[in-house]
Amino acid sequence: MSKKMHITLTVNGKEEEFLAEPRELLIYTLRERLNITGPHIGCETSHCGACTVTLNGKSVKSCTMFVAQANGAEVTTIEGMGGPDALHPLQEAFKEHHGLQCGYCTPGMITRAAKLLEENPNPTEEDVRFGIAGNLCRCTGYQNIVKSILAAAATMNAAKEAAE
Amino acid sequence: MIPAPFDYYRPNDMAGVLALLSEHGDDARVMAGGHSLIPMMKLRMADVPHLIDLQDVEGLSGITVADGSVRIGAMTTQAEIIDHAGLTQVAPIMKEAALQIADPQVRYMGTVGGNVANGDPGNDMPGLMQCLDAHFTLVGKDGERTVAARAFYEAAYMTARTDEEVLTAVTFRATSGGYAYEKQKRKIGDYATAAAAVLITKEGGTCTAASIAMTNLSDVPVFSADAGAALVGSSVDDEAIKAAKEAMLGDIDPSEDNRGPVAFKRHVAGVILARAITRAWSRA
Ligand SMILES: Cc1cc2nc3c(=O)[nH]c(=O)nc-3n(C[C@H](O)[C@H](O)[C@H](O)COP(=O)(O)OP(=O)(O)OC[C@H]3O[C@@H](n4cnc5c(N)ncnc54)[C@H](O)[C@@H]3O)c2cc1C
Ligand code: FES
Ligand code: FES
Predict the structure, then answer these.
(1) Which of B154, B173, B192 is the last residue of a domain?
(2) I need a surface site. Which of A33, A50, A90, A114 has the fewest CB within 10 A?
(3) Which of B131, B146, B173 is the last residue before a domain boundary?
(4) Residue range B57-81: average pLDDT?
Protein backbone atom coordinates (compact mmCIF):
# COMPACT_ATOMS: atom_id res chain seq x y z
CA MET A 1 0.00 0.00 0.00
CA SER A 2 1.11 3.50 -0.68
CA LYS A 3 -0.06 6.56 1.15
CA LYS A 4 -3.68 7.45 0.52
CA MET A 5 -4.40 10.77 -1.13
CA HIS A 6 -7.20 13.19 -0.66
CA ILE A 7 -9.09 13.26 -3.96
CA THR A 8 -11.75 15.64 -5.22
CA LEU A 9 -13.66 14.88 -8.40
CA THR A 10 -16.73 16.43 -9.96
CA VAL A 11 -18.69 13.59 -11.52
CA ASN A 12 -21.80 14.43 -13.52
CA GLY A 13 -21.96 17.77 -11.75
CA LYS A 14 -21.68 16.35 -8.25
CA GLU A 15 -18.62 16.95 -6.10
CA GLU A 16 -17.07 13.80 -4.63
CA GLU A 17 -14.38 13.70 -1.97
CA PHE A 18 -12.60 10.63 -0.67
CA LEU A 19 -9.26 9.08 0.22
CA ALA A 20 -7.72 6.71 -2.30
CA GLU A 21 -4.44 5.14 -3.23
CA PRO A 22 -2.98 7.03 -6.19
CA ARG A 23 -2.74 3.81 -8.22
CA GLU A 24 -6.50 3.29 -8.23
CA LEU A 25 -7.68 3.35 -11.83
CA LEU A 26 -10.41 5.86 -12.57
CA ILE A 27 -12.76 3.17 -13.93
CA TYR A 28 -12.69 1.45 -10.51
CA THR A 29 -13.24 4.72 -8.72
CA LEU A 30 -16.35 5.30 -10.79
CA ARG A 31 -17.75 1.79 -10.72
CA GLU A 32 -16.81 0.49 -7.30
CA ARG A 33 -16.37 3.55 -5.15
CA LEU A 34 -19.03 5.85 -6.59
CA ASN A 35 -21.39 3.19 -7.93
CA ILE A 36 -21.45 4.80 -11.34
CA THR A 37 -21.58 1.64 -13.41
CA GLY A 38 -22.37 3.07 -16.86
CA PRO A 39 -18.74 3.01 -17.99
CA HIS A 40 -17.78 -0.65 -18.48
CA ILE A 41 -14.57 -2.63 -18.34
CA GLY A 42 -14.11 -4.44 -21.63
CA CYS A 43 -10.43 -5.13 -22.16
CA GLU A 44 -8.73 -3.26 -19.32
CA THR A 45 -5.79 -2.78 -21.70
CA SER A 46 -6.63 0.57 -23.32
CA HIS A 47 -8.03 -0.92 -26.52
CA CYS A 48 -11.83 -1.28 -26.47
CA GLY A 49 -13.18 2.09 -25.29
CA ALA A 50 -15.98 0.57 -23.15
CA CYS A 51 -14.63 2.60 -20.22
CA THR A 52 -14.72 5.93 -22.09
CA VAL A 53 -15.73 9.01 -20.09
CA THR A 54 -15.35 12.72 -20.75
CA LEU A 55 -12.68 14.21 -18.52
CA ASN A 56 -12.00 17.96 -18.68
CA GLY A 57 -13.41 18.03 -22.19
CA LYS A 58 -11.51 15.04 -23.57
CA SER A 59 -12.73 11.53 -24.34
CA VAL A 60 -10.60 9.37 -22.08
CA LYS A 61 -10.28 5.64 -21.46
CA SER A 62 -10.79 5.57 -17.71
CA CYS A 63 -8.94 2.24 -17.39
CA THR A 64 -5.82 4.11 -18.43
CA MET A 65 -5.87 6.90 -15.89
CA PHE A 66 -4.90 6.90 -12.23
CA VAL A 67 -7.34 8.54 -9.87
CA ALA A 68 -4.44 10.73 -8.73
CA GLN A 69 -4.07 12.06 -12.29
CA ALA A 70 -7.78 12.82 -12.40
CA ASN A 71 -7.71 14.64 -9.06
CA GLY A 72 -9.53 17.97 -9.46
CA ALA A 73 -11.09 17.01 -12.78
CA GLU A 74 -14.62 17.19 -14.10
CA VAL A 75 -15.91 13.87 -15.33
CA THR A 76 -19.04 13.09 -17.33
CA THR A 77 -20.29 9.55 -17.78
CA ILE A 78 -23.32 8.22 -19.64
CA GLU A 79 -25.32 8.79 -16.44
CA GLY A 80 -24.64 12.51 -16.79
CA MET A 81 -26.01 12.70 -20.31
CA GLY A 82 -29.59 11.61 -19.90
CA GLY A 83 -31.83 9.10 -18.14
CA PRO A 84 -34.94 7.05 -18.91
CA ASP A 85 -37.20 10.08 -18.45
CA ALA A 86 -35.18 12.45 -20.55
CA LEU A 87 -32.99 10.70 -23.06
CA HIS A 88 -30.12 12.51 -24.75
CA PRO A 89 -30.65 12.73 -28.54
CA LEU A 90 -27.84 10.21 -28.96
CA GLN A 91 -29.52 7.76 -26.59
CA GLU A 92 -32.79 8.29 -28.41
CA ALA A 93 -31.13 7.71 -31.78
CA PHE A 94 -29.37 4.52 -30.64
CA LYS A 95 -32.73 3.20 -29.45
CA GLU A 96 -34.51 4.22 -32.64
CA HIS A 97 -31.88 2.93 -35.09
CA HIS A 98 -30.84 -0.25 -33.29
CA GLY A 99 -27.42 1.17 -32.47
CA LEU A 100 -26.94 -1.54 -29.87
CA GLN A 101 -27.45 -5.22 -29.36
CA CYS A 102 -25.96 -6.45 -26.07
CA GLY A 103 -25.32 -2.85 -25.03
CA TYR A 104 -21.93 -3.46 -23.48
CA CYS A 105 -20.09 -0.97 -25.66
CA THR A 106 -22.93 1.56 -25.72
CA PRO A 107 -22.11 3.86 -22.76
CA GLY A 108 -18.57 4.33 -24.10
CA MET A 109 -19.81 4.66 -27.65
CA ILE A 110 -22.37 7.35 -26.78
CA THR A 111 -20.03 9.27 -24.48
CA ARG A 112 -17.42 9.33 -27.24
CA ALA A 113 -20.01 10.23 -29.90
CA ALA A 114 -21.21 13.20 -27.82
CA LYS A 115 -17.70 14.64 -27.77
CA LEU A 116 -17.28 13.96 -31.47
CA LEU A 117 -20.51 15.85 -32.30
CA GLU A 118 -19.47 18.70 -30.05
CA GLU A 119 -16.23 19.06 -32.03
CA ASN A 120 -17.79 18.34 -35.41
CA PRO A 121 -21.57 18.91 -35.48
CA ASN A 122 -21.85 17.96 -39.17
CA PRO A 123 -19.75 14.84 -39.59
CA THR A 124 -19.67 12.70 -42.70
CA GLU A 125 -20.02 8.95 -42.35
CA GLU A 126 -16.26 8.70 -42.68
CA ASP A 127 -15.73 11.30 -39.93
CA VAL A 128 -17.98 9.26 -37.64
CA ARG A 129 -16.16 6.01 -38.35
CA PHE A 130 -12.77 7.65 -37.78
CA GLY A 131 -14.03 9.46 -34.69
CA ILE A 132 -15.26 6.30 -32.96
CA ALA A 133 -12.30 4.19 -33.98
CA GLY A 134 -11.27 3.88 -30.33
CA ASN A 135 -14.52 2.12 -29.42
CA LEU A 136 -15.00 -1.54 -30.29
CA CYS A 137 -18.36 -3.26 -30.69
CA ARG A 138 -18.59 -7.03 -30.88
CA CYS A 139 -22.25 -7.14 -31.93
CA THR A 140 -23.52 -4.59 -34.38
CA GLY A 141 -20.91 -4.45 -37.12
CA TYR A 142 -20.99 -0.66 -36.51
CA GLN A 143 -23.46 -0.01 -39.33
CA ASN A 144 -26.33 0.99 -37.06
CA ILE A 145 -24.05 2.78 -34.61
CA VAL A 146 -22.88 5.06 -37.40
CA LYS A 147 -26.48 5.51 -38.56
CA SER A 148 -27.54 6.43 -35.01
CA ILE A 149 -24.79 9.01 -34.58
CA LEU A 150 -25.59 10.64 -37.93
CA ALA A 151 -29.29 10.72 -37.01
CA ALA A 152 -28.52 12.28 -33.63
CA ALA A 153 -26.38 14.92 -35.34
CA ALA A 154 -29.31 15.84 -37.57
CA THR A 155 -31.72 16.02 -34.61
CA MET A 156 -29.33 18.10 -32.55
CA ASN A 157 -28.67 20.50 -35.43
CA ALA A 158 -32.38 20.89 -36.11
CA ALA A 159 -33.01 21.62 -32.42
CA LYS A 160 -30.21 24.19 -32.44
CA GLU A 161 -31.67 25.91 -35.51
CA ALA A 162 -35.16 25.95 -34.03
CA ALA A 163 -33.77 27.59 -30.89
CA GLU A 164 -32.06 30.36 -32.87
CA MET B 1 -4.83 -5.20 -13.58
CA ILE B 2 -3.55 -3.23 -10.68
CA PRO B 3 -0.13 -1.66 -10.77
CA ALA B 4 2.30 -1.85 -7.87
CA PRO B 5 1.86 0.95 -5.33
CA PHE B 6 3.65 4.23 -5.85
CA ASP B 7 3.93 7.68 -4.37
CA TYR B 8 2.42 10.31 -6.61
CA TYR B 9 3.71 13.86 -7.14
CA ARG B 10 2.33 16.68 -9.24
CA PRO B 11 4.86 19.52 -9.07
CA ASN B 12 4.02 22.76 -10.83
CA ASP B 13 7.48 23.74 -11.97
CA MET B 14 10.56 22.13 -13.45
CA ALA B 15 12.64 22.81 -10.33
CA GLY B 16 10.20 20.62 -8.42
CA VAL B 17 10.48 17.84 -11.00
CA LEU B 18 14.28 17.92 -11.03
CA ALA B 19 14.45 17.91 -7.23
CA LEU B 20 12.28 14.77 -7.10
CA LEU B 21 14.33 13.09 -9.83
CA SER B 22 17.58 13.72 -8.01
CA GLU B 23 16.14 12.69 -4.65
CA HIS B 24 14.74 9.36 -5.88
CA GLY B 25 17.11 8.57 -8.78
CA ASP B 26 16.23 5.34 -10.57
CA ASP B 27 13.10 4.87 -8.50
CA ALA B 28 11.40 7.92 -9.99
CA ARG B 29 9.87 8.37 -13.41
CA VAL B 30 8.04 11.25 -15.04
CA MET B 31 4.64 10.67 -16.59
CA ALA B 32 3.16 12.71 -19.45
CA GLY B 33 -0.07 11.32 -20.96
CA GLY B 34 0.58 7.94 -19.39
CA HIS B 35 -0.61 6.02 -22.44
CA SER B 36 2.61 4.08 -22.80
CA LEU B 37 3.62 4.10 -19.14
CA ILE B 38 0.32 3.16 -17.44
CA PRO B 39 -0.22 0.03 -19.56
CA MET B 40 3.33 -1.06 -18.67
CA MET B 41 2.71 -0.37 -14.98
CA LYS B 42 -0.57 -2.29 -15.08
CA LEU B 43 1.25 -5.26 -16.57
CA ARG B 44 3.90 -4.74 -13.87
CA MET B 45 6.50 -4.53 -16.58
CA ALA B 46 7.40 -1.08 -15.28
CA ASP B 47 7.92 -0.54 -11.58
CA VAL B 48 7.78 3.13 -10.60
CA PRO B 49 7.90 3.70 -6.85
CA HIS B 50 7.84 7.48 -7.33
CA LEU B 51 5.62 8.76 -10.13
CA ILE B 52 6.00 12.40 -11.15
CA ASP B 53 3.04 13.68 -13.15
CA LEU B 54 4.05 16.52 -15.49
CA GLN B 55 0.51 17.79 -16.20
CA ASP B 56 0.82 20.92 -14.02
CA VAL B 57 4.38 21.87 -14.92
CA GLU B 58 4.39 25.30 -16.44
CA GLY B 59 5.74 26.03 -19.91
CA LEU B 60 5.78 22.47 -21.21
CA SER B 61 2.98 22.63 -23.72
CA GLY B 62 2.13 24.66 -26.75
CA ILE B 63 3.28 25.07 -30.32
CA THR B 64 5.27 28.07 -31.54
CA VAL B 65 5.97 28.80 -35.17
CA ALA B 66 8.37 31.69 -35.80
CA ASP B 67 10.98 32.61 -38.40
CA GLY B 68 10.68 29.31 -40.19
CA SER B 69 11.22 27.22 -37.13
CA VAL B 70 8.83 25.18 -35.05
CA ARG B 71 8.94 24.45 -31.34
CA ILE B 72 6.52 21.95 -29.82
CA GLY B 73 6.44 21.71 -26.04
CA ALA B 74 6.84 18.18 -24.70
CA MET B 75 3.36 18.04 -23.13
CA THR B 76 1.59 18.98 -26.36
CA THR B 77 -0.84 16.19 -27.26
CA GLN B 78 -1.36 14.49 -30.60
CA ALA B 79 -4.87 16.00 -30.67
CA GLU B 80 -3.39 19.50 -30.26
CA ILE B 81 -0.94 18.82 -33.10
CA ILE B 82 -3.81 17.76 -35.36
CA ASP B 83 -5.84 20.88 -34.53
CA HIS B 84 -3.06 23.45 -34.92
CA ALA B 85 -3.58 25.22 -38.25
CA GLY B 86 -0.32 27.18 -38.02
CA LEU B 87 1.69 23.99 -37.57
CA THR B 88 -0.11 22.28 -40.43
CA GLN B 89 0.75 25.20 -42.65
CA VAL B 90 4.51 24.94 -42.06
CA ALA B 91 4.87 21.19 -41.44
CA PRO B 92 1.80 19.31 -42.70
CA ILE B 93 3.53 15.96 -42.21
CA MET B 94 3.00 16.35 -38.43
CA LYS B 95 -0.77 16.23 -38.76
CA GLU B 96 -0.68 13.46 -41.34
CA ALA B 97 1.41 11.32 -38.96
CA ALA B 98 -0.48 12.22 -35.77
CA LEU B 99 -3.77 11.16 -37.37
CA GLN B 100 -2.26 7.70 -37.86
CA ILE B 101 -1.30 7.28 -34.22
CA ALA B 102 -3.57 5.18 -32.03
CA ASP B 103 -7.22 6.28 -31.76
CA PRO B 104 -9.06 9.48 -30.71
CA GLN B 105 -9.03 8.77 -26.97
CA VAL B 106 -5.32 8.01 -26.95
CA ARG B 107 -4.55 11.09 -29.04
CA TYR B 108 -6.18 13.38 -26.47
CA MET B 109 -3.75 12.08 -23.84
CA GLY B 110 -0.57 11.00 -25.63
CA THR B 111 2.06 13.71 -25.89
CA VAL B 112 4.84 14.37 -28.35
CA GLY B 113 7.39 14.36 -25.50
CA GLY B 114 6.22 11.00 -24.20
CA ASN B 115 6.17 9.57 -27.70
CA VAL B 116 9.74 10.59 -28.52
CA ALA B 117 11.21 9.98 -25.03
CA ASN B 118 9.65 6.53 -24.63
CA GLY B 119 12.22 4.80 -26.88
CA ASP B 120 9.74 2.18 -28.08
CA PRO B 121 10.62 1.32 -31.71
CA GLY B 122 6.87 1.15 -32.42
CA ASN B 123 6.26 4.83 -31.70
CA ASP B 124 5.68 6.92 -34.80
CA MET B 125 7.07 10.32 -33.78
CA PRO B 126 10.72 9.22 -33.40
CA GLY B 127 10.93 8.19 -37.08
CA LEU B 128 9.19 11.36 -38.12
CA MET B 129 11.69 13.39 -36.05
CA GLN B 130 14.56 11.68 -37.94
CA CYS B 131 12.97 12.73 -41.21
CA LEU B 132 12.53 16.32 -39.99
CA ASP B 133 16.07 16.42 -38.55
CA ALA B 134 14.50 17.63 -35.30
CA HIS B 135 16.33 18.45 -32.10
CA PHE B 136 15.25 17.59 -28.57
CA THR B 137 15.76 19.94 -25.65
CA LEU B 138 16.66 18.23 -22.37
CA VAL B 139 16.78 19.83 -18.97
CA GLY B 140 18.70 18.41 -16.04
CA LYS B 141 20.30 19.63 -12.86
CA ASP B 142 23.28 20.94 -14.85
CA GLY B 143 21.06 22.98 -17.14
CA GLU B 144 19.79 22.58 -20.66
CA ARG B 145 21.22 20.76 -23.67
CA THR B 146 20.07 19.92 -27.15
CA VAL B 147 20.42 16.55 -28.83
CA ALA B 148 19.74 15.80 -32.49
CA ALA B 149 16.93 13.29 -32.96
CA ARG B 150 19.24 11.41 -35.31
CA ALA B 151 21.70 10.90 -32.41
CA PHE B 152 19.14 10.29 -29.66
CA TYR B 153 18.13 6.63 -30.03
CA GLU B 154 20.64 4.00 -28.87
CA ALA B 155 18.60 0.80 -28.55
CA ALA B 156 15.02 -0.14 -27.65
CA TYR B 157 14.08 2.02 -24.63
CA MET B 158 17.66 3.36 -24.47
CA THR B 159 18.17 6.97 -25.44
CA ALA B 160 20.69 9.76 -24.95
CA ARG B 161 18.47 11.15 -22.18
CA THR B 162 19.78 10.38 -18.69
CA ASP B 163 17.38 9.29 -15.95
CA GLU B 164 17.63 12.68 -14.32
CA GLU B 165 16.76 14.69 -17.41
CA VAL B 166 13.37 15.81 -18.69
CA LEU B 167 12.64 16.39 -22.35
CA THR B 168 11.04 19.82 -22.63
CA ALA B 169 10.57 20.43 -26.36
CA VAL B 170 11.18 19.28 -29.90
CA THR B 171 12.27 21.80 -32.51
CA PHE B 172 12.69 21.62 -36.28
CA ARG B 173 12.75 23.80 -39.38
CA ALA B 174 9.55 24.44 -41.32
CA THR B 175 9.33 22.05 -44.26
CA SER B 176 8.90 22.83 -47.93
CA GLY B 177 8.00 20.69 -50.90
CA GLY B 178 6.22 17.35 -50.81
CA TYR B 179 5.60 15.23 -47.74
CA ALA B 180 4.02 11.92 -46.79
CA TYR B 181 3.64 9.75 -43.72
CA GLU B 182 2.57 6.27 -44.78
CA LYS B 183 1.90 3.50 -42.28
CA GLN B 184 0.86 -0.13 -42.58
CA LYS B 185 -0.94 -1.41 -39.48
CA ARG B 186 -3.19 -4.38 -38.80
CA LYS B 187 -6.01 -2.24 -37.40
CA ILE B 188 -6.64 1.26 -36.08
CA GLY B 189 -4.81 1.69 -32.80
CA ASP B 190 -2.04 -0.69 -33.79
CA TYR B 191 1.63 0.11 -34.02
CA ALA B 192 3.21 0.04 -37.46
CA THR B 193 4.22 -3.12 -39.28
CA ALA B 194 6.18 -0.56 -41.26
CA ALA B 195 5.92 3.19 -41.63
CA ALA B 196 7.77 5.70 -43.77
CA ALA B 197 8.22 9.46 -43.40
CA VAL B 198 9.27 11.26 -46.57
CA LEU B 199 10.06 14.90 -47.43
CA ILE B 200 10.98 15.79 -51.02
CA THR B 201 11.97 19.02 -52.73
CA LYS B 202 11.43 19.40 -56.47
CA GLU B 203 12.88 21.99 -58.85
CA GLY B 204 11.96 21.92 -62.53
CA GLY B 205 10.97 18.25 -62.47
CA THR B 206 14.09 17.11 -60.65
CA CYS B 207 14.40 16.06 -57.04
CA THR B 208 16.87 18.37 -55.30
CA ALA B 209 16.62 17.02 -51.75
CA ALA B 210 14.94 14.12 -49.98
CA SER B 211 14.76 12.94 -46.39
CA ILE B 212 13.56 9.42 -45.57
CA ALA B 213 13.02 7.66 -42.24
CA MET B 214 11.40 4.37 -41.27
CA THR B 215 9.51 3.19 -38.16
CA ASN B 216 9.39 -0.17 -36.35
CA LEU B 217 11.88 -1.84 -38.65
CA SER B 218 14.80 -1.95 -36.24
CA ASP B 219 15.19 -1.48 -32.48
CA VAL B 220 15.62 2.25 -33.18
CA PRO B 221 14.03 4.54 -35.77
CA VAL B 222 15.95 4.41 -39.04
CA PHE B 223 17.10 7.51 -40.91
CA SER B 224 18.17 6.31 -44.35
CA ALA B 225 20.47 8.95 -45.84
CA ASP B 226 21.22 6.62 -48.76
CA ALA B 227 17.56 6.21 -49.62
CA GLY B 228 17.16 9.99 -49.80
CA ALA B 229 20.36 10.33 -51.83
CA ALA B 230 19.07 7.76 -54.33
CA LEU B 231 16.27 10.16 -55.28
CA VAL B 232 18.32 13.34 -55.56
CA GLY B 233 19.02 14.32 -59.17
CA SER B 234 16.35 11.98 -60.52
CA SER B 235 12.84 12.68 -61.75
CA VAL B 236 11.62 10.19 -59.11
CA ASP B 237 10.73 7.63 -61.74
CA ASP B 238 10.31 3.90 -61.08
CA GLU B 239 14.02 3.32 -61.31
CA ALA B 240 14.85 5.96 -58.71
CA ILE B 241 12.15 4.67 -56.36
CA LYS B 242 13.56 1.17 -56.74
CA ALA B 243 17.03 2.45 -55.90
CA ALA B 244 15.68 4.25 -52.81
CA LYS B 245 13.92 1.06 -51.72
CA GLU B 246 17.12 -0.97 -52.12
CA ALA B 247 19.07 1.60 -50.11
CA MET B 248 16.43 1.65 -47.35
CA LEU B 249 16.41 -2.17 -47.18
CA GLY B 250 20.15 -2.01 -46.50
CA ASP B 251 19.54 0.20 -43.47
CA ILE B 252 16.66 -1.57 -41.69
CA ASP B 253 16.96 -4.62 -39.47
CA PRO B 254 13.46 -5.87 -38.59
CA SER B 255 12.87 -8.84 -36.33
CA GLU B 256 10.11 -11.41 -36.37
CA ASP B 257 7.14 -10.82 -34.06
CA ASN B 258 3.34 -11.08 -34.12
CA ARG B 259 3.27 -8.64 -37.05
CA GLY B 260 5.07 -11.18 -39.22
CA PRO B 261 8.37 -12.75 -40.24
CA VAL B 262 11.36 -10.72 -41.38
CA ALA B 263 10.81 -11.35 -45.11
CA PHE B 264 7.24 -10.03 -44.85
CA LYS B 265 8.33 -6.91 -42.97
CA ARG B 266 11.00 -6.17 -45.56
CA HIS B 267 8.40 -6.57 -48.28
CA VAL B 268 5.94 -4.25 -46.50
CA ALA B 269 8.70 -1.71 -45.83
CA GLY B 270 9.38 -1.53 -49.57
CA VAL B 271 5.72 -1.15 -50.50
CA ILE B 272 5.13 1.53 -47.87
CA LEU B 273 8.22 3.51 -48.83
CA ALA B 274 7.28 3.44 -52.52
CA ARG B 275 3.81 4.71 -51.68
CA ALA B 276 5.17 7.43 -49.44
CA ILE B 277 7.67 8.61 -52.06
CA THR B 278 5.00 8.64 -54.77
CA ARG B 279 2.60 10.65 -52.62
CA ALA B 280 5.27 13.08 -51.43
CA TRP B 281 6.46 13.61 -55.01
CA SER B 282 2.93 14.29 -56.21
CA ARG B 283 2.68 17.05 -53.60
CA ALA B 284 6.15 18.51 -54.25
C1 LIG C 1 -4.28 1.59 -27.66
C2 LIG C 1 -3.02 2.36 -27.90
C3 LIG C 1 -2.54 2.48 -29.20
C4 LIG C 1 -1.38 3.21 -29.46
N5 LIG C 1 -0.95 3.32 -30.76
C6 LIG C 1 0.16 4.06 -31.03
C7 LIG C 1 0.62 4.24 -32.36
O8 LIG C 1 0.04 3.75 -33.33
N9 LIG C 1 1.74 4.98 -32.55
C10 LIG C 1 2.42 5.56 -31.53
O11 LIG C 1 3.40 6.24 -31.76
N12 LIG C 1 2.00 5.42 -30.26
C13 LIG C 1 0.90 4.67 -29.99
N14 LIG C 1 0.47 4.55 -28.69
C15 LIG C 1 1.26 5.18 -27.62
C16 LIG C 1 0.78 6.57 -27.33
O17 LIG C 1 0.96 7.40 -28.46
C18 LIG C 1 1.51 7.13 -26.11
O19 LIG C 1 0.70 8.12 -25.60
C20 LIG C 1 2.90 7.66 -26.35
O21 LIG C 1 3.75 6.66 -26.80
C22 LIG C 1 3.54 8.16 -25.06
O23 LIG C 1 3.11 9.40 -24.77
P24 LIG C 1 2.58 9.71 -23.32
O25 LIG C 1 2.46 11.18 -23.26
O26 LIG C 1 1.37 8.92 -23.09
O27 LIG C 1 3.80 9.24 -22.41
P28 LIG C 1 3.87 8.44 -21.06
O29 LIG C 1 3.19 7.12 -21.20
O30 LIG C 1 3.47 9.30 -19.94
O31 LIG C 1 5.44 8.22 -20.96
C32 LIG C 1 6.14 7.31 -21.82
C33 LIG C 1 7.61 7.25 -21.38
O34 LIG C 1 8.27 8.46 -21.67
C35 LIG C 1 8.75 9.08 -20.48
N36 LIG C 1 8.45 10.51 -20.63
C37 LIG C 1 7.23 11.06 -20.91
N38 LIG C 1 7.34 12.39 -21.03
C39 LIG C 1 8.64 12.69 -20.82
C40 LIG C 1 9.38 13.91 -20.82
N41 LIG C 1 8.80 15.08 -21.10
N42 LIG C 1 10.70 13.85 -20.55
C43 LIG C 1 11.29 12.66 -20.31
N44 LIG C 1 10.67 11.48 -20.29
C45 LIG C 1 9.34 11.49 -20.57
C46 LIG C 1 8.02 8.43 -19.33
O47 LIG C 1 8.79 8.41 -18.17
C48 LIG C 1 7.80 7.03 -19.87
O49 LIG C 1 8.93 6.25 -19.70
C50 LIG C 1 -0.68 3.82 -28.40
C51 LIG C 1 -1.16 3.70 -27.09
C52 LIG C 1 -2.32 2.98 -26.83
C53 LIG C 1 -2.80 2.87 -25.42
S1 FES D 1 -11.65 -1.20 -20.62
FE2 FES D 1 -10.64 0.66 -20.97
S3 FES D 1 -10.22 0.58 -23.08
FE4 FES D 1 -11.10 -1.37 -22.72
S1 FES E 1 -23.72 -3.85 -28.70
FE2 FES E 1 -22.66 -5.56 -27.94
S3 FES E 1 -20.62 -4.85 -27.90
FE4 FES E 1 -21.63 -3.28 -28.93
Answers:
(1) B173
(2) A33
(3) B173
(4) 97
